[in-house]
Structure formats: C-alpha cells, structure tokens
C-alpha cells in the first residue's frame, strides 16, 4: 500500500484494541455489580464508537481529514443509536434468557466464564470488525466515488435498522400483540430488516477504506465477518430458532423474505389447489 503509514497504523491497531477491551471490561465490572450481564449488548455500539474516536485522534496528520471525520461520525452515529436503543429496550428487565442459559452451564465461576466467553470475545470482535473504520482514517486518498457510495449504503442501512427497531418496539409495547408475530411495516418485507440494515451499514463503512486494492483486502474482513454473524451466527439463525415454535411463525416465514427486503409472497388461495 504505497504511502500508507504502516508503522503508525500498527500502533493504532494496538491502541484501538485497548479501547475496545476497556469498554468491555468497564461494562463487565458494572454488570457484575448489578448481576445482569445483558449490559454487554449496550456496550457493543459504544465500543465501536470508542475505537472510531481513538483512531480519529491517532490518525491526525496521516489520513485525509474529510475521510477521517466522515468515518468517525458515521460509526459514532450508528454505534450510539444502537446502544441507546438497546438500553431503552432492556430497561426494567432482568437477565437476558440467552445469557442466563449460557451461564447456567458455566464450569466454575459464572463471572469468569462470562468474562472469557462474552466480554473478551465481543471486545475482540469489535476490534476485528472495526478494521475498515481504522484503515479508512489512515488513507491519504481524497474522498471519491467509493466514499459517496459508502455513505449512501450507510445511510440506507441506518434508516432500515432504526425504522425496523422502532416498529418492533412499538409493536411489543402494545399488550394486544403479546405472543403474536410482528409482520407489519418493514417486517412484512423482511423477517430481519434491522439486521439487513446493519449489513448495509458495515458494507457502507467498508467502501471508504477502499483507497487501494491492498487497503480493501485488509478492510474486507470486517463486512464479511459481520455478514456471517448476522445471517449464520448470533443474529438471524439464533433468533429464528428461538421463534420457530411461536404460533403463526411458520406461515410468516412462508410469505416473508428471510433477509433481503422483498414484497411479501402471495398467500395461497384455497382455489389455487383445485384439481
């Protein structure tokens, strides 16, 4: 990567890792005191914001200022919105059933197990997934078409994620919907519009890091890992397994796209099956 400040970037990688793990360790201390490890979900977006701000400070004098400000602002807006949303969603609730089940099987100390398998793992993932945020801020190439395209993808993803989260929260807040499947608004077009929005956000943040083939090769790890997590890992797959036995969910999956928003499939009419 001609002209890329590798030595400064290597230092940034180490300091960014420290920032990510610092957020997770502080969250672990608070969660342990409160006895509720679901707080780690709030720390996810905040940790990305910490990495972006740390990189912005360290990259001064190396990368293009417009690119540094754009990537830092985009990451912070996405991360802080997500943290606030998750904090509001979990207010007044006890432990998340996912963490309760996980910790019930913990060998030895539950807190030590949670630290290893939840907090430190998520800190490592934040560092890895934030690679384009770090790479882009050290690229001296002026903003161009790839950054514009990335901004459009990021904005589209943020809107889809925010609207999807809002619609689901409003649906769940109505006692009349208890036990029912959310199939309205964006959720009528995709079973996971918020995850699809997240998918677009990270491919959008990847594009400003594509100043050269080498920088793109380093940064592409991030959206690939995030895409895997959202579709095959702890996102879509895990949630659908949890909802599989809910009344009406099978019919919902039959008519609604699993990820990419698409018009709902037509419900079969009895006359369609006449001999």
Chain-wise SSE layout:
Elements: H1 6-34, H2 39-58, H3 65-90, H4 97-104, H5 110-129, H6 131-138, H7 145-173, H8 193-206, H9 213-219, H10 221-231, H11 236-243, H12 249-255
Order of helices and strands: HHHHHHHHHHHH
Count of helical regions: 12
How many strand elements? Answer: 0
What does the overall shape look like? Answer: globular
What's the helical proportion of residues?
A: 55-70%
Beta-strand percent range: under 5%
Overall residue-averaged pLDDT value:
92
Question: What is the number of domains?
Answer: 1
Low-confidence stretches: 269-275
Task: Give the helix/strand class.
Answer: mainly alpha
Ends apart, CA distance between termini? 66 Å
Main features:
275 residues, mainly alpha, 12 helices, 68% helix, 0% strand, globular, disordered C terminus
Can you give a write-up of this model?
InterPro entries: UstE-like. It comes from Streptomyces decoyicus. Pfam families: DUF1295. The chain crosses the membrane at residues 6-30, 42-63, 113-133, 200-231. Keywords: Membrane, Transmembrane, Transmembrane helix. With 275 residues, the chain is an all-alpha fold. The protein has one domain (6-259). It is built from 12 helices and no strands. The longest helix is centred in the first third of the chain and has 29 residues, at 6-34. The protein is globular, with a radius of gyration of 21 Å. The N and C termini lie far apart (66 Å). 38% of the residues are buried. Mean pLDDT is 92; it is low at 269-275.
